[in-house]
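Chapter summary example: a protein plus adenosine-5'-diphosphate.
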Amino acid sequence: MNRKKIFWHIFPSFLILIILSLIITTWYSTQESNAFYQRQTIEDLKSRALIFASYLSSKKLTKKQIDPLCDIAGKKSKTKITVILPNGVVIGDSEKNPNQMENHINRPEIIGALKHGIGWQIRNSNTLNQKMMYVAIPYIFKNSVIAVIRTSIPMTSFSIPMLKLNEKIILLVGTIAIIAGLICIYITKRIVAPLEEIKNGIDEIKNGNLSKKLPIPKTEEIAVISEAFNDMTKDLSQKIERITKNKNEQQAIFASMSEGVLAIDNNERIIRINDAAESILKITKNTGKGKMICEIIRIPELINFINELLSATKPIETEIYWETTNARHFYVSGTILKDYDGVKIGAVIVLNDITRIHKLEKIRSDFVANVSHELRTPITSISGFAEVLLDEGIQEPEKTKHYAQIIVKQSKRLNNIINDLLTLSKIEDGSQSQILPFINTEVKQIIDAAIQACSTLAAEKDMKLIVDCNDEFIVKANQDLLETAIKNLIENAIKYSEPQKEIFIKCEREKDFLNINVIDNGFGISKEHQERIFERFYRVDKARSRNQGGTGLGLSIVKHIAITHNGSVFVKSNDNQGSTFTIQLAMNNDR
Ligand code: ADP
């Protein structure tokens, strides 16, 4: 649309109005002044004719004397003077020989003079060949018209001053028009300026600068608009600020959720997706939005779930298992999304990673199965030999002794398993409820206590326990637990080595950590078992372990104790080349 500025709406109208009124005024004034001047000239010519008539009446002149008189009077008064008889015959003329002049009876000024006492006309003079003004009056003597006296002047003597006057008027009017035009521009600009400022302000606000304040002009109507506008932008800015804050909060919550959340529309196009969902579904960051769900997700179960959800009327849920780099279990729940009018616009899907819960459940059920299995073996053995004893009685003392020894051994094993299980549960309970006392302890003292506890076992196999530990090494530890862990490692070193070997218990500092190493020259552990030996009931060689009275829980206990101390345990070993078990603890433990 072709739109004009307010300036061009106001200014030309004002200007046209001014020019029009000036033209009308000028036209009227020039007309009036022309008419006035004309009237004045007629009066002037009439006066000259009257003077000439009174001169004529004062002298008794013959017809022949009139013409020279006309010449003299005409020259002196710079007026063409003509004397005409009532029958139209010219008897005197200041410019021409009256005998050569035609009858003037039909001249309008003569007719006017004879009829109305005065007559005048402007026309071209045949005699002088120029435009002239003629005024004629009757010359009355003794109540009868005896001649008509006509005075005339060329129109130039009348029109030149008139033209000059008109020129001055036009010049003046032109000057007034220019000044009025300039004033008009000034006034229009003054009216338009605040409106321009409002427009510029709106443009700035449109470009996002909501802090822009419009100046308040002095014009009341526009000031009201500016004030209303300023109030409106302030209100708008506060609302936008509130909405942005809410949106940011929602986005922060949405982004920081550990659950994967994705919203889709009715056409299965992703409307929103949070970081967790992107990572769960392995979607590159910020690329999912706007895409069809089947374009970016390759999990048939999830796609089926979404299809089902979009045609469902109430929330649905399921568990989905899929394998990407590793096996993952998800609890997936979905709800229909509705707008304010209750019309379905899509759905929200929440993905909960329950892989850990599944793993824990599996560990728990495996543990129960393992415990049952581990307990069943000695119990079966005990009950079996007890029954044999019952059946056979004490007929063969040697056999009976042997059976009783087996029962005792299996009972001890049973006792060991139960003790280890109790220790494990004590560590777990203690670390969970954080009630275990931790105090600064000299490591050397704890190692000595552990060696003391293992001395009988070592003596049985004629093995030497050699300690290399600085007395000043201090860690924050639970003494009983750390002693149990070191004791377990020393016992294993004894159990899984040939007799008469040496075992070293060596402490060394590594940056902020203290490494307690238990080094043996025993059977060693091959690489494939090293990762699993810290699992409960895991044994490399079951028969050997059982023979040694092992429960398969010793290293698991060590691992738990290390974790409870915010430390770790690891092993370096090779088949038949001995093993080094290391408990690593922080030296400045702030626990
Ligand atoms: P166990 O009661 O059977 O000793 P552990 O949990 O203490 O149970 O140890 C698990 C397994 O790790 C043992 O059965 C054994 O096969 C192996 N193992 C532990 N310590 C050593 C060691 N110092 N040398 C060789 N093998 C070891």
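Key point: The chain has a mean pLDDT of 88.
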